[in-house]
Amino acid sequence: MKISDVKFEVKRYEYHETFHITGSSRNIAENIEIKLLLDDGTIGMGEASPSYRVNGEIVSSLVALESNVKEMVRGLDVRDYAKIFKVMDGLSKSAPSIKAAIQYASLDALSNSIGLPVYRILGGSKDTIETDKTVSIDVLEKMVQKSIETFSQGFHVLKIKVGENLKEDMDKILAISDATKGAEYVVDANQGYSPKEAIQFARFVYDNVINVKIFEQPVIWNDFEGLKLVRHESPIPVAADESARTKYDAYNLMKNDCVDFINIKLMKSGVSDALAIIEMAKTANVGLMIGCMSESSLGITQSVHIAAGTGAFVHCDLDSHMLIKEDKFRGKFVQNGSKINLL
To answer: Does this model's pTM top 0.85?
Structure first.
């Protein structure tokens, strides 16, 4: 079960609709599909979904790492996947999405070799999880209509993107709440607010009895003091996303009492740091959610199996494969509305 080769392939996906968050709009996702081959012919698959905005990654630079990565892991045995994880930890700062894809591909290769799904290798805590679905930034009328459509499709939790205009955001979340009675919301500002604005928004939501379960990344990623202030002044739970890229970030956020939740994304942390953050969060009594970048169904499989295997997450935001166009579904799971059943 030793690794004999690693192959990178760039894949481009179109979004069904423009995906608009604070300070960013995109219609195309460019991912790197990674094939890890073992000496007995077994294949393990992973996917990197790079983010320049969060990680400073550029696809062309990551592709250039193919030969280096191959040399780093060639000859390692996937049964000893902790050794592969440790080697890939060297890419934590420079290429975290590649780190994530290789680490998961090693688990996938092991899974294919022994006939045991990855989520069971990681503990098998659950065989079903539930995800939200995202409504990106648009004019009020379109966001309300999209929220109604999504809620009617069986998604009981909607992720609402805000952060570019406080007054408009207040109007939008109130209108969405009025139009989708019974829904819950995760509101994600993607670093768009000042601490003062974030506190205003949180208090508005609370005063208007809007059912927001998590207020995600309200302020700029490196403003830990601002995040802490919002957390202590907000009547709704506050989560860090862009602020929590590595296990060291997560540790500092927890140690300094900055958040109620950490949003783990494999593309930021890789599998190894994700598992470390899970253990820290248990000790610190901090909640966890798991999110995604722009992964296809192949890439979302990685997070689905981590989530189900560990059973560590209060909330799952694993919907990117539903927002992009794919010729063929390749996930090792079955999607039924908001429910995801593991295979």
So the answer is: yes
